[in-house]
Design goal:
heterodimer, A: alpha/beta, Rossmann fold, 6-stranded mixed β-sheet, 4-stranded antiparallel β-sheet, 10 strands, B: 2 domains, 7-stranded mixed β-sheet, 11 strands, about 50% helix, elongated, binds adenosine-5'-diphosphate, binds magnesium ion, transmembrane helix (chain B)
């Protein structure tokens, strides 16, 4: 499903050179729920961004569904992100000036679908996260947990095979965090979605199929 | 995509209203500048309607008395005998100065103000003023119950509209007598190249022995290449025939240039002010538009993360701004179209309105396009991962 081969990521600024990832080899199976753990700054987000084709590795290759990603400026990358991958960020990244329904529909406007179908699918996705009654609210009218559920609905509205989440519970209290975990688990069990979750919460990590640990940009066994 | 674009514009109405206000104001400033520039250019590129070359103006300085008319007539006749002189005629108004003389013509109760001059029967030949319809006045107008009048095309149009002006009779503004229109000329722009394109008329000056009609200027067309030393001989003839006067002789081509230089100063000053104003407006607008897009770097990152292509984002961002610009320009155009009705700036001709609106609209659209596409493109040169963390 997702294969990372010898991934390096080096951030260069004028004065310093940070090696964020070093020689990462990782395979994630279809339908697996994997958590990535490690202390702050160890490279978890960087790794997830590279998996999600949001960032380009300095060396090494990413394979998604058996295809090797060669070019990071290609338009086909946009299609791949749109159809195969859903992303959930720690800080939600909802568009404040669009209501919940429009926010969730966002990935679909980059596909050839009718407005009616977009609405239907957005509604279904919002039902799935338990927010069917809040369609016309704006993000600032929702709690943090609700906003994160909207972000999950947006990530799954296009039925991606892969869901990448970067500390989805990091900004939430433990009860809301628990709800988010339940949703992610149901996605894996109901739709067979591959879920990768970055977290530094040991308890949450234990609820997943496999824990991948990183320290200082390297995988630790 | 389009629906969502409009939804976004609407939901951001508070900030967008400010942006649109800024665009509308810039549009109006630009409109004013373009119209003024076009108007200046139009004035400059319109022919004067007469030939000022090789011509001297002789202004009489002194107190007019009726018997001076005969003296003036003989002075003119004497000048015509000089071999260097091809024409010598009378024309009352100075060329290339600020002075003017106006009257009001009433036709069907509609008054029209125009500048007038008074000139002798051959003056159109001296000044090479083409008569485009009818004729210049002449001896056949003597003894009639009217005074002949030659109008420029603009005046004829303004007074009579689509009616044919020739032969039309108009009362003098104080009702002393009637004018009859005998001819139409293209133009006589007495203030020179930057003269507003106005209405103009010539009344007839008749050479007589005694006249209450004061005439203050003789025009002399010289054979090309005549040296200025001829002025001494001319002065002698003038002094002999018109002993009560002093004379001021000037070359029209010199007068034209010095008047032009004088009129250019305010024009250049206002052009410089306009450029400063435009720069300020452009900077303000650029800042506002630029910031609007730069603030959306995170949004751009997000859109790309969920699968928007680079072109998709560019189309969306510039589409939003172009839609707003189109709205603002429509409002601006509506306001600009009201300007002629305020009467504040006189009657702005249709071609200037069209030029001003077209010019200002295209500049605003180009500016909006560049100000959205360029910063959006900059925001897309960084990876979506970086864009999402951009503050
Ligand atoms: N855009 C960037 N430019 C420079 N350094 C970066 C950038 N993004 C991350 N880093 C550095 O790379 C390392 C890994 O960062 P990150 O993947 O965000 O860690 P984590 O998500 O595990 O907290 C850190 O040292 C961080 O400072
Ligand atoms: Mg992180």
């Amino acid at each position: 499903m997702i294969v990372l081969k010898n991934i390096e990521k080096i951030y260069r600024t004028e004065t310093v050179e940070t090696i964020a990832l070093h020689g990462i080899d990782l395979e994630i199976e279809e339908g697996e729920f994997v958590s990535i753990m490690g202390p702050s700054g160890c490279g978890k987000s960087t790794l997830l961004n590279i998996m999600g084709l949001l960032d380009e590795p300095s060396a090494g290759y990413v394979h998604i569904e058996g295809t090797r990603i060669d070019s990071y400026s290609d338009r086909s990358l946009a299609t791949l992100r749109n159809h195969q991958i859903g992303f959930v960020f720690q800080s939600f990244h909802l568009i404040p000036d669009l209501n919940i329904l429009d926010n969730v529909m966002l990935p679909l406007i980059y596909r050839k679908t009718s407005t009616k179908e977009r609405r239907e699918r957005a509604r279904t996705a919002l039902e799935r996260v338990g927010l069917q009654s809040r369609l016309h609210h704006f993000p600032h009218q929702l709690s943090g947990g609700q906003q994160q559920r909207v972000a999950i609905a947006r990530a799954i509205v296009g039925s991606p095979r892969i869901l990448l989440t970067d500390e989805p519970t990091g900004n939430l209290d433990s009860q809301m965090g628990g709800e988010i975990m339940k949703i992610l688990q149901s996605l894996k069990s109901d739709s067979g979605t591959t879920v990768v979750m970055v977290t530094h919460d040991e308890e949450k990590a234990e609820q997943t199929d496999r824990v991948v640990r990183i320290f200082d940009g390297r995988l630790v066994a | 995509m389009i629906r969502q674009m409009l939804v976004l514009i609407w939901n951001r109405k508070r900030i967008n209203a400010l942006i649109m206000l800024e665009i509308t104001l810039s549009f109006l400033v630009l409109f004013a500048v373009v119209v003024s520039a076009l108007y200046a250019w139009k004035k400059y590129s319109t022919p004067l309607g007469f030939d000022y070359r090789d011509t001297l103006s002789v202004v009489l300085i002194g107190q007019w008395e009726p018997h001076h008319a005969g003296q003036l007539k003989r002075a003119a006749e004497a000048m015509r005998t000089m071999p260097e002189v091809s024409w010598c005629e009378a024309s009352h108004m100075d060329l290339f100065t600020k002075s003017y003389w106006t009257t009001v013509l009433r036709h069907n109760d509609k008054p029209t103000q125009l500048m007038v001059n008074r000139a002798s029967d051959q003056y159109h030949q001296l000044a090479r003023i083409p008569v485009i319809d009818g004729r210049w006045f002449g001896p056949q107008d003597t003894g009639g119950d009217y005074e002949p009048l030659v109008l420029n095309r603009r005046a004829a149009q303004k007074v009579f509209g689509s009616e044919s002006p020739l032969g039309k009779v108009l009362p003098h503004s104080l009702g002393k007598f009637n004018y009859k229109v005998v001819g139409i000329i293209e133009d006589y722009r007495q203030h020179g190249d930057l003269d507003p394109l106005g209405e103009y008329g010539f009344r007839r000056y008749v050479w007589e022995e005694n006249s209450d009609t004061r005439m203050r200027q003789l025009m002399v067309r010289l054979k090309p290449g005549t040296p200025r030393s001829i002025e001494r001989d001319m002065l002698k003839i003038l002094k002999t025939n018109l002993p009560d006067y002093d004379f001021s002789i000037s070359e029209l081509s010199v007068a034209r240039e010095s008047y032009m230089r004088k009129s250019l100063i305010p024009l250049i000053t206002s052009a410089m002010l306009a450029v400063c104003l435009l720069l300020m407006v452009a900077m303000g607008l650029l800042g506002v538009l630029w910031q609007n897009v730069a603030q959306r770097t995170q949004e751009i990152g997000l859109r790309r993360a969920i699968g928007a292509s680079t072109t998709g984002v560019l189309v969306q961002i510039s589409g939003e701004l172009l839609t707003m610009t189109a709205f603002s320009v429509a409002i601006g155009t509506f306001l600009a179209l009201q300007v002629p009705f305020t009467g504040l700036f006189g009657n702005i001709e249709a071609d200037l309105m069209v030029g001003g609106i077209t010019g200002a609209t295209s500049v605003m659209l180009v500016l909006a396009f560049v100000c959205s596409v360029y910063p959006a493109w900059l925001a897309m040169r960084i990876t979506p991962a970086d864009a999402l963390h951009y503050e």
